[in-house]
Amino acid sequence: SCGELRCTALNVGQGNLLLPLTHMPCALILDEYGLDGIAVFKGYRVKVQRPIWKSVCVCLLCNKRDEHLLKKRNVPQEESLEDSDVDSDFKGVSQNVTLDAILQNATSDNAVIQLSAVQAARKLLSSDRNPPIDDLIKSGILPILVKCLERDDNPSLQFEAAWALTNIASGTSAQTQAVVKSNAVPLFLRLLHSPHQNVCEQAVWALGNIIGDGPQCRDYVISLGVVKPLLSFINPSIPITFLRNVTWVIVNLCRNKDPPPPMETVQEVGVSARCTGFHILVDTVWALSYLTDGGNEQIQMVIDSGVVPFLVPLLSHQEVKVQTAALRAVGNIVTGTDEQTQVVLNCDVLSHFPNLLTHPKEKINKEAVWFLSNITAGNQQQVQAVIDAGLIPMIIHQLAKGDFGTQKEAAWAISNLTISGRKDQVEFLVEQNVIPPFCNLLSVKDSQVVQVVLDGLKNILIMAGDEASTIAEIIEECGGLEKIENLQQHENEDIYKLAFEIIDQYFSGDDIDEDPSLIPETTQGGTFNFDPSSNMQTKEFNF
């Protein structure tokens, strides 16, 4: 499964303050940190350069999206792009016709017999369940179908052959490779220039399935020059169904990131993102989100394409699907360097977040807080931008009231601020009453969240300096101390050590014993007069 993997990085050699945390791709974490996502060196959690974190494609890789965003698609019988002009005597060809008969008739000199045979093969491949792809490949029909693609004098035959090959390419990787090895790809590219729209569209669909097989096939198709003719179809004269197929192929061009697509492809996709039309817009923005999910170099490619000023306003689009795609795309960008993050901030992106943080859809809230957690992991000027935009109280509200996934992101946002921020910025955070909802998360079962909160609390206490006792009182009064004490028995070694350190350094009890206000006075009658409230001052947080 594609869960979110995160770790805590210790800034070894620079005291106890923790590093800013952003999000890292799942595969990168598994490669560099192991299954638990933690880099360990001689017992220390090792500092790594930003971005330490990057959100995994939380929904895209785990959850099914609309069918048009699947990597490969079979063209079912009922979704014919356009019926071929087949004689009525042959339209009722039985799907039970033998493969030998199909193979023999597909090489017939009689155009009608040949067309009906190819159509019969296509119908077998268009069945909803278990199409006999391997049987047809083993029959030796692939070279015959590929040869039919050359028949410019018979567009109906080209269409039926392209449809059959499309469905073969929708199968397993081995089945897709069989189509590629039959030398069909150059002919599909040639059919992109066909005067017959149904033939042209079917070629687009076939290429989409081949590109969706992986980066090797993608790069092969790109090397043959697919991008420019593909993008030429994005114009108002093309029917919407055709356009959606085109943008689905564009998504597949951008989906694989190991290796990433060529720079030229990224630039041209960035230009195509300016196209109008709801479904086209959604698909193209998702394509950009894939491109930005591949590391800083790909992020820079997208930035250099000039598309960021176009993406940011989409955060306030009236359609939730557009908002979601745009939020993921710009969210991926701010997982990059501080300079790349600043490009997004310079587009007035934070002005869109009051609405996103109060959006009725919880998924939007969660992604919005995730975005902000990567801003608070930036430099102090970027942290200040979040404060100046009035977003800290809204993050704290999500910390207290959001669902657990959103609370988790809010915990990261707060903890990151305690790491990246100046003393006055952390002081502002505390003044917004962040500690009680922050401490409430110490009792959750998610060890990762517990450690993030402990790290944040310790950072606040460290930064408070002489005022640490005031922070300690707030933690104790909201029930945080009891939770921290309980965590000394936690099965996670990092958690119980961190809990012990906090209690040992800030809740040892010596300070309480020496507090004059807590020592009872002796009256003339020898009795004690205990009134701790008489000398109690109102707690103020001032570093």
Automatic annotation (TrEMBL):
<keyword id="KW-0813">Transport</keyword>
<dbReference type="GO" id="GO:0061608">
    <property type="term" value="F:nuclear import signal receptor activity"/>
</dbReference>
<dbReference type="InterPro" id="IPR032413">
    <property type="entry name" value="Arm_3"/>
</dbReference>
<dbReference type="Pfam" id="PF00514">
    <property type="entry name" value="Arm"/>
</dbReference>
<dbReference type="InterPro" id="IPR002652">
    <property type="entry name" value="Importin-a_IBB"/>
</dbReference>
<dbReference type="Pfam" id="PF16186">
    <property type="entry name" value="Arm_3"/>
</dbReference>
<protein>
    <recommendedName>
        <fullName>Importin subunit alpha</fullName>
    </recommendedName>
</protein>
<feature type="repeat" description="ARM">
    <location>
        <begin position="183"/>
        <end position="210"/>
    </location>
</feature>
<dbReference type="InterPro" id="IPR000225">
    <property type="entry name" value="Armadillo"/>
</dbReference>
<feature type="repeat" description="ARM">
    <location>
        <begin position="306"/>
        <end position="344"/>
    </location>
</feature>
<dbReference type="GO" id="GO:0005634">
    <property type="term" value="C:nucleus"/>
</dbReference>
<feature type="domain" description="IBB">
    <location>
        <begin position="63"/>
        <end position="119"/>
    </location>
</feature>
<dbReference type="GO" id="GO:0005737">
    <property type="term" value="C:cytoplasm"/>
</dbReference>
<keyword id="KW-0677">Repeat</keyword>
<feature type="repeat" description="ARM">
    <location>
        <begin position="140"/>
        <end position="184"/>
    </location>
</feature>
<dbReference type="InterPro" id="IPR024931">
    <property type="entry name" value="Importin_alpha"/>
</dbReference>
<keyword id="KW-0653">Protein transport</keyword>
<dbReference type="InterPro" id="IPR016024">
    <property type="entry name" value="ARM-type_fold"/>
</dbReference>
<dbReference type="InterPro" id="IPR011989">
    <property type="entry name" value="ARM-like"/>
</dbReference>
<dbReference type="Pfam" id="PF01749">
    <property type="entry name" value="IBB"/>
</dbReference>
<comment type="similarity">
    <text>Belongs to the importin alpha family.</text>
</comment>
<dbReference type="GO" id="GO:0006606">
    <property type="term" value="P:protein import into nucleus"/>
</dbReference>
